[in-house]
Structure formats: C-alpha cells, structure tokens
C-alpha cells in the first residue's frame, strides 16, 4: 500500500511537503550536517523525491537515498542528479557494519509495521560508524491504521507507530545515546523528533 500510494502521488507529494512547514526540515538538516565529518557517508531511509534532504546533504557528503517507490526514486534522480538513489524496502536492506557516519529517516519508518521497527533500528545501529548519528521522526502516540484518501490527495496510505516513551526505551536498549528529543506539533497531533548518537 505504501509503495502504491507514493507511486500514485508522484509529483503531488511535493505539494504535500510544502504544506508541512519545510523550514523545520532545513533546521534539522543544518544541525545534523554540523555533526558530521567532511567526508561523511550518509544514508536516508525513505528519501521520496530527494527534496529537501538529498538536495541539501549531497552538496556536502556522500549521500545514498532509498525509497520503496520507483516513481519517487525516478523523480529524485531528476531532482538531485549528483546523489545516489536506489529502489528498496528499508526493512530488507543489507549493508556492512560501520558503513555510514549518519542515517536519517524523516517520517518514513512509521510506514513500516511496528513489529518490524525494532529490528530496523538495530540494523541502523550496526550500519553506523562509532560516534555516528541517527536522526529520525517517529510517532508520538501508538496507532496503526490506514487513510483511504490521505490529505485529500486521492491515495490510500498506511502507518504504524508506538508512543514516544516506547521508542525512547528501544533506542536506549539498543545502545544509542539520545542527544535531543521533542514533540513536533502538526495540526491536531504530531510526531517525535529523535537525534541519536551511536
């Protein structure tokens, strides 16, 4: 459902993003980039069409973006030709340990069934180099379900997430240090920001 939804959205996803207060993405990315070494290798899980994350980070770092949607990846390659992109299911990725200085997942892991998320967080920890950083946006309250007309965009979408306290406990159990976490308000609800260090 997630792949089909983002394929159907095509370029309309950009319109949706622009309505989300894109300035906050810029603040997150600037803060994240300042933590990384000059020659950093960065992975983004759920890169969509490459705007703004790939566009920003690929100007400074060795960037790889993955997304389950071939349509979004096609757009990303056109939007950010100097970055690398691959069509992939984040739950099935396989990288050697210590591959990346930084990993990002902005509103993407919450499209993965909650039962599969802890294993992916463990994988992210393994992929990161020592003192590597993980920036992610998770759920704030526990909920799993679908929207048959997501934001009146004419497509169905699936989400699955637990509450912020549970995410925090998972990260600590894995071995991450939490550098920053806070609620990100959005309309009547919101998500949770986590900046983590290995």
Automatic annotation (TrEMBL):
Domain Methyltransferase: 42-132
InterPro entries membership: Methyltransf_25, SAM-dependent_MTases_sf
Coiled coil: none
Gene Ontology molecular function: methyltransferase activity
GO BP term (any one): methylation
Keywords, ordered alphabetically: Methyltransferase, Transferase
PANTHER family documented for this protein: TRANS-ACONITATE 2-METHYLTRANSFERASE, TRANS-ACONITATE 2-METHYLTRANSFERASE-RELATED
Listed name of the protein: Class I SAM-dependent methyltransferase
Organism encoding this protein: Spirosoma profusum
Lineage, highest ranks first: Bacteria, Pseudomonadati, Bacteroidota, Cytophagia, Cytophagales
């Amino acid at each position: 459902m997630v792949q089909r939804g983002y394929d159907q959205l095509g370029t309309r996803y950009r319109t949706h993003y622009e309505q989300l207060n894109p300035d906050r993405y810029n603040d997150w990315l600037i803060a994240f980039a300042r933590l990384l070494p000059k020659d950093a290798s960065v992975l983004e899980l759920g890169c969509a069409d490459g705007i703004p994350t790939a566009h920003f980070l690929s100007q400074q770092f060795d960037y790889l973006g993955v997304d389950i949607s071939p349509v979004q990846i096609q757009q990303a390659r056109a939007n950010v030709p100097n970055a690398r992109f691959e069509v992939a299911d984040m739950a099935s990725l396989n990288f050697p340990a210590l591959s990346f200085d930084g990993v990002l997942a902005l509103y993407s892991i919450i499209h993965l069934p909650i039962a599969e998320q802890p294993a992916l967080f463990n994988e992210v920890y393994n992929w990161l180099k020592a003192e590597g950083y993980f920036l992610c946006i998770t759920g704030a309250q526990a909920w799993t379900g679908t929207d048959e007309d997501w934001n009146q965009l004419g497509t169905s979408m699936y989400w699955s997430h637990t509450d912020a306290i549970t995410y925090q406990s998972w990260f600590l159990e894995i071995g991450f240090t939490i550098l920053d976490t806070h609620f990100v308000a959005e309309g009547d609800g919101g998500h949770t920001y986590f900046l983590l260090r290995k």
